[in-house]
Amino acid sequence: MGQVDLAHDAAAMRRIFLSLGLAQPDEEVRAVALAGGVSSGIYRVDLRSGRYCVKQALPRLKVAKDWEVPVERVFSEIAWLRVAAGIVPGRVPAVLGEDAATQSFVMPFLGDEYRNWKAELLAGRVDVSLARSVGDLLGRIHAATADDAALAARFATDANFHALRLEPYLVETAREHPALADTLLALVERTASTRRVLVHGDVSPKNVLAGPKGPVLLDAECAWFGDPAFDVAFCLNHFLLKAAHLPAHGRALMTAFHGFAHACFAHVHWEPVEALQQRVATLLPALTLARIDGKSPVEYLDAQRRAAVRDAAIALLRQAPSSLETIAVRWTLEFAA
User: Are 317 and 228 in contact (CB under 8 A)?
Assistant: First the structure.
């Protein structure tokens, strides 16, 4: 039997809310699809008991290149949210219930008092204190889960992480750039074999809401026990990309870059911080190039900016920078007005 698509199955959506006790038998359950989900169907449901958000994993991501992924990843996301809620209460959505039959789960709907960080950055509103708060939030999760054998066993989701992150970003970019393939595939191998903390896997501004009590981190479907360098580099990459897109705000974005990194690194206790910084610095330009030529290209750069980012990322990859400062200096000179 194929996957039930909640976008076209009102009865299945109603069953979920009735089974969780969130809807009454005489109540209409009407779902409104929300924009922005590339890998999931996301819906808002308003009921007498409250406002809710339903997330259902999709088997194929909504991107131009073919990208199929296992829907079972939703259960790793649910588990990550529950672990993180015990570490940073109120900084991740609460899981109100899950439905195995539709590979979906229900959360509270976070309303207008929450602002999407990506939208804020693209509008030129660069809040350095928010960047520091997100770095602190991520660092606290990493530190609390470091070298935890039980979590390592629970989140041994190597196949999911490869399908969702390593293959579409780094392996695909290696196909597009054969001259860099050895370097990129070595980064894949190093990342895949480094298992130290509980990794979110998609720490992107689109997955951060700036709320009245601080940032809230969403969308952990790439959850994996692995290399913290991936989370750190994945987020830092967005400051670089947005600096290239908004050179008038480039210096503020690079200040946010440093603020996020310093706040995150302040929590490192499971290895020498210099070792983690070195892995982040060598991985970062690979992820930057992947957002140009991988399966998930960034949508807001024009052709000229894409070419400039590609050239800068390739030069840094060949240089193999040992520090984030090396990357920041080049990026500021090239893209910050």
Answer: no
Contact at 8 Å (CB) between 297 and 307?
Answer: no
pLDDT tens per residue across span 141-189? 999 999 999 999 999 999 999 999 999 999 999 999 999 999 999 999 9
Residue 285 has pLDDT above 90, yes or no: yes
Model confidence over 247-279: pLDDT tens digits? 999 999 999 999 999 999 999 999 999 999 999
Give the separation between CA 89 and CA 232, rounded to whole angstroms.
21
How far is 302 from 289, CA to CA, in rounded Å?
15
Contacts of 123 (CB under 8 A, 6+ apart): none
Smallest Cα–Cα separation from 285: which of 205, 175, 169? 169
- Is residue 184 packed enough to be buried (19+ CB in 10 Å), middle (13-18) or exposed (0-12)? buried
Question: Which stretches does DSSP call E strand in the chain?
Answer: 31-33, 40-47, 50-57, 97-99, 104-108, 115-116, 197-199, 208-211, 214-217, 224-226
* Cα 279 to Cα 172: distance, rounded to the nearest angstrom: 20
Residue 60 bridge partners (DSSP): 68
